[in-house]
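Lay summary

Proteins are chains of building blocks that fold into shapes. Our project writes down both the chain and a compact code for its shape. Here are two examples, one after the other.
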Amino acid sequence: MRDANVRFLSSLHTALFRLTGGRLGSRLVRNDMMLLTTIGSSTGREHTVPLLYLEHDGALVVVASYGGRPDHPQWFKNLLINPQVRAQLGSESFRVDSRVASPEERALLWPRVVAAYDGYRVYQSRTDRQIPLVILDPL
């Protein structure tokens, strides 16, 4: 899918999620979805994307897959510079501290990620980069 289409669909998903307090857009491909808001690394402006998430030990786990493209998604690059971001589940929005999963955490979580959505296995096969998992710890 072309980047312009991805941006358009992401914006539409985000708008529906926000407009309905998560009643629309909180489930996709049989998984829970959230909104993640980062601060742009060069603009300083907020950017929000819908992401599939898993819960793990009181934290949220998101996947920086970008459909298996060769580069990391911009939201991932943003949180590397500004790790305190905002998550929205349904109508509840809260601050989280983000960090990239350690190799041990990734080894534990990756099987759960692909069990939740096998598309991630396909995305990983499309790229030479290791797709990062991000842990979001509520503040």
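And here is the second example, written the same way.
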Amino acid sequence: MIPWERLDTADVPGSGDTLTLHRHGRDYSIRVNGLELMNSRMHGSEESLAELACEGLEPVSGVRVLIGGLGMGFTVAAALKHLGPDSRVVVAEIVPAVVGWNRGVLSGLAGRPLEDPRVEVRENDVALVMNEARRDYDAILLDVDNGPDGLTREGNDALYTAAGLERARRALRPGGVLAVWSAGPDESFTKRFKKAGFAVRETRVRARAGNKGGHHTIWLGRVGRNS
């Protein structure tokens, strides 16, 4: 049996957590403190996150989308397929090494989405990017950590609090969508999401492409047109 090979290690800013990048043949894995955070074989739900969030945006001019969490690039690549030529996708990734991996050894997995001229990468906390925005985005996609019940830095939890949801709502244009990926369901988060003033839809999607693998959870929250 071919063993997993560790390719690189990176510290997560603002925490004591460590990310490691591993390879096994054609497969790649990113782990946090030894626990697998993502695997290149399981990206169907990340693609579903983008497809659901960007539904109907392709014919709209001047679309702006914010993606929190770069991962292995599958969410960004899927979003680009559903957006027009004059759209803009801002990717907020707090770990510089993850950006480097996506420009290097991982670049071919999702078709080199960071080379698309519509993409801007910001090596920053997505919460800070949202703080700077006022009705700037038609969609915000949060694929950070494991969702509301995270594995990595405690600061990620703030994204899913009432204050974090209000921050996202202020950053969205009227009628905009906040899409949240999670490894599993979270009833308390669903209630909190609705209480924050979003019209919320929760759906379960398959982890792997081709309707395979386990299930992950995606929430879609839309703000009112008159917000």
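What can we say about the second shape? Residues 162 and 196 are 6 Å apart (CA to CA).
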